[in-house]
Write a structure and sequence with these properties.
Distance between the termini: 12 Å
Radius of gyration: 13 Å
Number of strands: 3
Low-confidence stretches: none
Length: about 70
């Protein structure tokens, strides 16, 4: 990713404390884990919406936007 590039992630939240395999099989991740993993990779969190609207079934999502710092 180029410096100044952005990464957006939309996902359903999940409870903390599950095995990593459970998160991968269910295709959701707690925002705390996402933020930790992505910031460890050198990106910084620039915005976070914990109540992002999903499909009409009422499922709620979170939306996180990260940026690779300009060097």
């Amino acid at each position: 990713m180029k410096p100044g590039g952005h990464l957006g992630v939309i996902d359903r939240s999940a409870p903390l404390g599950l095995n990593w395999t459970d998160y991968m099989e269910r295709h959701f991740l707690p925002p705390e884990i996402l933020i930790d993993q992505v910031t460890r990779g050198g990106l910084r969190l620039v915005s976070f919406d914990s109540d992002f609207a999903g499909p009409p079934d009422g499922t709620r999502y979170y939306f996180a936007v990260f940026e690779k710092p300009r060097q």
